[in-house]
Hints:
Elements: H1 3-26, H2 29-32, E1 44-47, E2 52-55, E3 59-62, E4 64-67, E5 72-73, E6 78-81, E7 85-87, H3 90-105, E8 111-112, E9 126-127, E10 130-134, E11 138-140, E12 143-147, E13 155-160, E14 164-166, E15 171-175, H4 181-184, E16 186-191, E17 195-197, E18 202-209, E19 213-215, E20 220-228, E21 233-236, E22 239-241, E23 253-255, E24 262-264, H5 268-289
Parallel strand pairs: 1-4, 1-20, 2-5, 2-21, 3-6, 3-22, 4-7, 8-10, 9-12, 10-13, 11-14, 12-15, 13-16, 14-17, 16-18, 17-19, 18-20, 19-21, 20-22
Antiparallel strand pairs: 23-24
Helix pairs in contact: 1-5
Amino acid sequence: MSIQLISSRLLKRHILPLGVLLGFASAFIPVAHAQTILGSMDSYGLMAGGTVTINGLSTTINGDLGKIGAIAGAGSNYTITNGAEVTTSATPNQADFTRAFTGLAGMTPTADLTGKILGTTAGATVLTPGIYKFDATAQLTGVLTLDAQNQSNAVWVFQIGSTFDTAAGSSVVFTNLAANSVVNDGIFWRVGTTTFLGANSVLVGNILGGTTINFGAGAAINYGRALTGSNTMTLDSNTIDFVGSNSGYSGGLGFVDSGTTIAPIPEPSTYALLAGCMTLAFVVIRRRRMPR
């Protein structure tokens, strides 16, 4: 048998099947190792690329407070825990903001909620993990329930074309969360322009605001952040709790490459399936190599 024929058979029986399998596996690698799409913004409870104004009696921020210049407002009426006041910069803070902001907008929606009111309108009161689009404005009234369906790496992305307003006393709550959800799950409110959180409303997740973010008196973000790239932020006796780095519902998504394309991080079951396929391929190759 010629050397050329032997090489051809080896290529077909062993190298090609293994190459196909490794190619399949590599499709997951760039996303699988990503912790969060927030990059350098991960340590912030609040981040503004402009002035931060804090009014009212007392605001509590868990995480870094990023701003340009001094804090405006009544004075020392705020407390920072697990962080410090930081001056934001074009690189990397605003660059990472732009990357995440652009990437979230580019994800393919799973449902169009344009014209529906979150927490009130039928079809927008209980939402399972998905990517929800609003062509222009979005509103939250009443109670919006996010049903994780016991999924690991459950992700909700809200693509809001222009403004986002939450009514006074409105809230977002969870049901059927899997273990370690604060770290593994992701909630992202990608708002095209202005965000206003009504008095005593309670939001969860991470707001990425295209322009200003304004908090009504007593409004809170539980398990999340408020981030803007180059705009201002106004607070009034609020509570913002990002929980900790690589958490605060900032997980579940990763960048596919060095660009702005974002994709879900596969669930653990996906890795198990992939590992099983690779093991099976190894066994098949070993058997083919055994003498007959």
